[in-house]
Structure formats: C-alpha cells, structure tokens
Amino acid sequence: MPVVRGKNIDPLFTAEQIAERNRALAIEITKGPTKDLLVIAILKGSFIFAADLLRALHDTGLAPEVEFITLSSYGAGTVSQGVRIVKDIDSDVKDRDVLLIDDILESGRTLRFAKELLYERGARNVTLAVLLDKRVKRQENIEADYVGFECPDYFVVGYGMDVAYAFRELPFVGIVTGDA
Ligand code: IMP
Ligand code: MG
After folding, report:
1. Which of 20, 65, 80, 108 is spaced 20 to 30 Å from 54 by Cα?
2. pLDDT for 133-144, tens place per residue?
3. 3-state secondary structure of 93
C-alpha cells in the first residue's frame, strides 16, 4: 500500500482507471449540449479532474472556453448550511451551454447552488460532470449528468481532493487508512 507522508493510503481508483473514465466521459459530453460551450471548474477540489477532462474533451474535437469559480460551504450543523462565492467567474453565461465540473457530489448543496446561480444568470443549459458520486450522503434533489465513479462512503483524498490541506497532488484517489 502506498505510504505518503507517514500515512497509509489505500488506492480506490487508480490513475489508469481515472484516465480511461475521463476518455469515456468526454465522449458522453459531446453528445450533450455543447453550443458555445463554457466549462466552469469549481475550485479547489476539481482542478486536476478538470485539467484531465478538458484535455480528453480536446481529443474529441471540442474547444470550450474555460473558467473557474471558487465556492465554499459554511455552517457545519444540520441548520443554516450554505454555499458562498469566494471568487466568481469573469465571463457572461447568457444563452450559453455550461458544463460545471466538480470533484465530488455529496450532499448536493454545492452543485445545486452553482447550477441555480448559472440559470439565474441566463445560461441555456447547465450540465454537471463529477469525478465521484457519493450518493448515500445526498441531501438535495440533484443528479450529475456525467459521473466518473460511484463512490463508497469513505473520506477520499488525492487527484485534487484534500484532507486538512494535504494529498491533493496524489495521481490517484485513495482512502487514508492510518499511520504507516
Ligand atoms: P456537497 O455536495 O455540497 O456536500 O459538497 C461536496 C464537496 O465537499 C466536494 O466538492 C468536496 O470539495 C468536498 N468533499 C466531500 N467529500 C469529500 C471527500 O471524501 N474528500 C474530500 N473532499 C470531499
Ligand atoms: Mg469541492
């Protein structure tokens, strides 16, 4: 099992599995709404997935504009949980097809917020691509249009995702299982 900074990391999805899924997702995406396509990656967690998925999209012939939005959740209890914009996009989304990219769809609050925001701003279609779908944690009535993998109910790290600011740089998705 890989050991990273003194922790055992149990690989859940390997770099090879992810690369293969990204190629398949890109082909699925070409069959959806892609007119004047704007891809928006939700930072920070999606940055590696977005970079790889965009290059897979390029291989299909799509040439999207790329933007970034930084969103943050606040509130930890069962009440008053919300999402706020830390840094917004610069582009106008009016009448455009938008593909939102995120690392994990969990409660659904982040993606529901982002999707509603973009429709309020006049986007024509907003579709969602996520690397991982942690379905058992869902609180909102929202589904992704493109899902890399169904994710078991573990806290995962790597491939952009962190725990306490660490492990984003791992080329695979794994579970921290303890001290090495
Ligand atoms: P939600 O769908 O609004 O609950 O938010 C999902 C967000 O929480 C993702 O975009 C991640 O940034 C973060 N997140 C959820 N589960 C995990 C995990 O297992 N590892 C790392 N980040 C996670
Ligand atoms: Mg996130």
Report:
1. 108
2. 999 999 999 999
3. coil
Strand partners of residue 97? 125
Distance CA 42, CA 40 (A): 6
Q: Which of 46, 70, 104 to mutate to test the pocket of ligand 1 (most atoms within 8 A of CB)?
A: 104
Q: Which of 100, 105, 99, 102 is nearest to 150 (CA)?
A: 105
Beta carbon of 64 within 6 Å of any ligand 1 atom? no
143 Cα–ligand 1 center, Å: 15
Which atom number of ligand 1 is nearest to the Cα of residue 113?
Answer: 3
The contacts of residue 58 (CB under 8 Å, 6+ apart) are none
Residue with tokens 């939102």, as numbered in its chain: 100
Domains and CATH numbers, the chain: 15-153 (3.40.50.2020)
Q: Which of 48, 36, 31, 23 is nearest to 148 (CA)?
A: 23
Say which DSSP state 152 is in: -
Distance CA 163, CA 161 (A): 7
Helix (H, G, I), strand (E, B) or coil at 97: strand
66 DSSP β-pair partners: 39
Residue position matching structure tokens 């921290």: 176
Mean pLDDT score, 172-177: 95
Q: Which are the contacts of 4, defined by CB distance < 8 A and separation ≥ 6?
A: 167, 170
